[in-house]
Amino acid sequence: MNKTIRIIGVPIDLGQKQRGVNMGPSAIRYAGLSDKLKRLGFSLHDSGNLFVPVRESLSEAEQGNFLLSIQQVCQAAYEAGQHAVADGDIPLFLGGDHSLAIGTIGGVTHHEPIGVIWVDAHGDANSEQSSPSGNIHGMPVAALLGEGFPELVNIGRPGAKLEGRDLVMIGIRDLDSGERQWLKQSGISIYTMRDLDERGMSAIIHEALQCLKHRSRIHLSLDMDSLDPNDAPGVGTPSPGGLNYREAQLLMEIIADSGKLASADVVEINPILDHENRTARMAVELLASLFGKSIL
Q1: Does 60 score more than 90 pLDDT?
Q2: Each residue of 171-226: pLDDT tens digit?
Q3: Each residue's pLDDT tens digit, 130-147
Q4: CATH code at position 78
Q5: Is 295 part of a structural domain of the chain?
Q6: Is 229 a domain residue?
Q7: Rounded to an integer, what distance in angstroms lies between the CA atom of residue 150 and that of residue 133?
Q8: Percent of the chain with pLDDT over 90
Q9: pLDDT at 56
Q10: The pLDDT of residue 7
Q11: Looking at residue 1, what is its pLDDT?
Q12: Catalytic residue numbers?
């Protein structure tokens, strides 16, 4: 694994209606991310935060779904990821809502394909037609596979950034009816919470890595609402019955053991809804395990 991590904050809160997720990058930094990673032997380059417009500053014409502003932020995230990979660094994106993944994953696949492990309570595979809410943070998976708003699908370069076989989803438990049908036909490998309950995390993540063995690099997209709200309360769309702390830690540890981690994003931390920065502190512990912290 490369030994320089480039931290890139993406304080976007335009993909959903719950305010506060724009403070996620600051919460993660405040929780001690840099110190944890430095102790693991990494050099760090914190690039600060990408520019995200304040929603009140945007015109009323864009107040519906903020599509054009999200496109601009994701374009900047795409370029940041592309440049980090070209420079030989590991880009680590701090969100912000999950709409940012359209840009981050697009950027890290600019030079060559990558396998993606998407850890989330939700499918994030809606289109403008299927979405009950119209929130774009529920659309990045579809956009990355070439479905949805052309403004999102064509960020960075035209067309899909992933094939279905390049993506594995873990922790899924809350799907809209339209995206459920789309996901069944997508070619994505999907492990729901029932799968995890029946088979255990170790079997699931080893099988997930086998699903992605055709790719030499792995990107982890970690939505903190994948964890149970009792463990990670500071998220905008909590869903009961999620991963517990040790399951999430084991997931990170086995990805680290694979030696294939090349990039990551952690998203949807909302400090306004949190208790004493608990969710951000948990995210930092999980990222430390992802980057090689071990018990012995």
Answers
A1: no
A2: 999 998 889 999 999 999 999 999 999 999 999 999 999 999 999 999 999 999 99
A3: 787 878 999 999 999 999
A4: 3.40.800.10
A5: no
A6: yes
A7: 19
A8: 88
A9: 82
A10: 98
A11: 66
A12: 98, 120, 122, 124, 137, 223, 225, 268
215 domain residue, yes or no: yes
What is the total count of domains within the chain?
Answer: 1
d(CA 30, CA 42): 18
Range of the domain at 65: 4-290
For the chain, how many residues are written? 296
